[in-house]
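#struct-help
A.M.: can someone run this one for me? Single chain, 306 residues.
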Amino acid sequence: MDNASVHPVTVPDALVESVTSFFGPEWARRLPGLTVRHLDEWGLTVAGESMHGAVALVVPVRRADGASAVLKIQPQDPETEGEPLALRVWDGEGAVRLLDHSPRTGAMLLEALDPSRRLDEEPLEPALEVIGSLLARLTAHPGPEDMRGLGPITRDIADRGRARATHLEEPWRPVLERWAAIADELAVDPGDRLLHWDLHYENVLAPLEGADRGDWLAIDPKPLVGDPGFELLPALRNRWAEAEETGAPVRATRRRFDLLTEVAGLDRDRARAWTRVRLLQDCLWMNDARHRVPRAHALIDRALDD
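D.P.: on it. Structure tokens below:
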């Protein structure tokens, strides 16, 4: 009797909708069967309700020896395909540990963490210190040679940013043109560190109690090779309501930037420049940024001024 008959695999409706929008309905239809196949291949038993991100199904499991783990199934694309390689390089230092991996499907067996303890539930300043510390640990590693690099990505951001700027009116057009010019300059020297790229508060979880793995670990990287300054924007932009609630969001954001760069040991000038490149990348993705720079992004840009 296979795992499907004992523990039916549930794919949440929200995941089906999300993954279909990105990768089409066929991959969503294959997801339950793919999950069951890996449960059987790795001798796993479902141990809890399925969880999910935007495109990944995450199933709590137990291994044959009774140890807890997590099965992660997600489509493979340029953002996700480097995750197993990055996790191997980090080898549990500041990040969730990879236990097994299927090169054929991209499925991963990961150490179990505590999903009830996320960094976004901690007070902001201690959370920023955790992010800065994790950035220092993760980017201490040089990036693998066969991983996607920040240089071509940055050149593409610059080109598309200039094209987008032509559709904007004052005062927003010169902002995008300035960011695109910064991207042109930085693309020449994009850096060589292993980056997480998506290190925000919800992507940091506590280990299981008694695991002796420190206090916090990063999950769900979208790795690439580049400059650590490219990593800061998620921690500046997320939990934005807390910056607004201070009544002085520019000052509050500057405090975030100062704390992150200090703890992570980053060059502040390069961090400012790379964060502006990341602001431009963000705007290129956002439908509500087609004709203007969103408020949060404009205020973050102001906070980066000396």
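A.M.: thanks! Residues 147 and 285 are 23 Å apart (CA to CA).
D.P.: also worth noting: The chain has twelve helices and eleven strands.
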